[in-house]
Design brief:
Radius of gyration: 23 Å
CATH superfamily of the largest domain: DD-peptidase/beta-lactamase superfamily
Organism: Janthinobacterium svalbardensis
Pfam family, one: Beta-lactamase
Mean pLDDT: 92
CATH architecture of the largest domain: 3-Layer(aba) Sandwich
Shape: globular
Strand content: 15-25%
CATH class of the largest domain: Alpha Beta
Protein name: Beta-lactamase-related domain-containing protein
Structural class: alpha+beta
Signal peptide: 1-39
Oligomer: single chain
Number of helices: 15
Largest sheet: 8 strands, antiparallel, barrel
Keywords: Signal
Length: 496
């Protein structure tokens, strides 16, 4: 295996650049890379591997970069799979891993989590062409003999497939925890009804459909049941026929759990680096979170959508692709966030299942993009740094670190806030414990997932973490000290 990987590296790089190949190999650990679609990609891949960027640069300080091995260790991520897209083609793909981690290559499967939603939106657009499914009619016709319980929907404001897909149906249950393989797994309908063994409550229609944006994996699970019942075909099979096969996503599947014979899969890890029970949790909520895929396959999906939007393809006409990518509220279309104008216009999504964190972004006009998939709960930090390195290497118009100016704190107020805090709303697996520290010179926040992160004062009552991008605001709630951590309210812990 190691010999095969080295041959791939040498093919990726110019034949005369053996010393550069060795330097790149040291940075990657053991990495499998596909051949470049553009000349000079090997040099760019090397720069990216050694040029990871934090979310915030501090004015007056030298730009700080990190190599991929430093950050894999820092975030306790075992491996990360990356695919870079240029001009509507996969320019290169690689898997970076810690030397002690299990073998991984560009065919290794990762859980894509909420990135699944974009494929669900594309599936709906494909199926509406069959006249068996309607985007703008009540979904109750596809749910029979069951129907949605009474809520805020009405004949004038029905729950439709479109508003389920763009998160304006008023549906509840934002996300799902997953199920260890050793536990009983609910059906999708049990998830919607909140019936045992479901771990989440029943999905309700809490606001008038179309009136507000509320991110809802529960809504996507309703869409899942509606599509498979209207087409009388299991959802995973609909996806295989209508999305995965047409886009040549040969390694991708919505099988939950994966067949036991599938050995080339990543194993998820908690924030402390320990392995998720059974390697990965099971997600019966396929439309919302069920995709297993590779970075290269996700790149093929992004390319398929972008090309359909730009010129129309056999996969989707321009009309359907543009409908798919037309945002409703909160810049959310049918499974994608769509932002920017002109050269900045792009669609994107991130995903987080237990032990897996991933992200991608695709520019609509240029056909440039990036996919990052990780097997760790801290992978969102790593993914953000890789995206910034890619954007910097290719001079993309977005994703640059934001610039923060230092400013003195009100020291009396700041030192009074030193102590331990708990978020008012916390969904982490580990202790809800944030500690603000000051050693007389430097400020630090100790977080429950990545531990200590440097803070830089930016105003009399504010600091920023260059690493996470979080702004920390020092506030009062009556006589009680509190923090806003990235906009989330945290009160003093009883043990502070």
């Amino acid at each position: 295996m190691e010999g095969k990987l080295m041959r791939i590296r040498l093919w990726l790089l110019p034949v005369h650049a053996s010393s550069r190949a060795l330097r790149l190999g040291a940075l990657l650990g053991v990495a499998a890379c596909s051949g470049p679609a553009h000349a000079g990609e090997s040099d760019i891949a090397e720069r990216i591997a050694s040029g990871l960027r934090q979310r915030v640069d501090i004015a007056g300080e030298a730009t700080q970069t990190f190599d991929i091995q430093q950050r894999l260790r820092r975030y306790k991520v075992s491996s990360v799979s990356v695919a870079v897209i240029r001009d509507g083609k996969i320019a290169w793909a690689g898997v970076y891993r810690q030397p002690s981690a299990p073998a991984a290559d560009t065919d290794t499967l990762y859980q894509a989590a909420s990135i699944s939603k974009g494929l669900t939106g594309a599936l709906a657009q494909r199926l509406t062409g069959s006249n068996k499914l309607q985007l703008d009619s009540s979904v109750d016709a596809c749910l029979r003999p069951w129907s949605l319980p009474s809520g805020q929907q009405s004949p004038e404001h029905p729950v439709t497939l479109r508003n389920l897909l763009n998160h304006t149906a008023g549906a509840t249950v934002s996300g799902f925890p997953g199920y260890p393989p050793s536990q009983a797994i609910p059906t999708d309908l049990q998830v919607i009804k909140g019936e045992p063994p479901s771990l989440t409550p029943a999905v309700a229609i809490q606001t008038i459909p179309g009136a507000a944006h509320a991110y809802s994996g529960g809504g996507y699970t309703i869409a899942q049941v509606a599509m498979q019942q209207c087409l009388r075909t299991p959802f995973a099979e609909l996806m295989r026929q209508q999305v995965l096969q047409p886009l040549r996503m040969r390694r991708s599947t919505f099988a939950q759990p994966l067949p036991a014979a599938e050995h080339n899969r990543a194993r998820g890890h908690y924030a402390d680096g320990s392995e998720v029970e059974g390697g990965a949790f099971v997600y019966p909520e396929l439309a919302a979170a069920g995709l297993w895929t590779t970075a290269s396959d996700l790149a093929r999906f992004a390319i398929g959508v972008q090309q359909s939007w730009k010129i129309g393809t056999a996969f989707l006409s321009t009309t359907k692709a543009r409908d798919l990518l037309t945002p409703a509220l909160n810049n959310y279309a049918q499974g994608f966030f769509v932002v920017g104008d002109g050269e900045h216009k792009r669609f994107m999504h991130s995903g987080g299942n237990t032990g897996f964190k991933s992200t991608y972004a695709m520019y609509l006009d240029s056909g440039n993009g990036v996919v990052v998939m990780t097997d760790g709960d801290n992978g969102s930090y790593l993914g953000g740094e890789i995206v910034k390195a890619v954007a910097s290497a290719y001079d993309w118009p977005d994703f640059k670190p934001r610039l923060a100016q230092t400013a003195p704190l009100d020291l009396a107020t700041a030192t009074r806030h030193v102590g331990i805090y708990q978020l008012d709303n916390f969904e982490g697996r580990f202790a809800n414990r944030y500690e603000l520290r000051f050693d007389g010179k430097d400020w630090t926040m100790v977080m429950p997932d990545i531990g200590a992160t440097r803070l830089v004062p930016t105003g009399k009552n504010s600091l920023v973490s260059p690493e996470t991008g979080d702004i920390i605001e020092l506030m009062q709630d009556g006589a009680q000290d509190l923090l806003l951590i990235g906009g989330r309210k945290a009160h003093r812990s009883p043990d502070s």
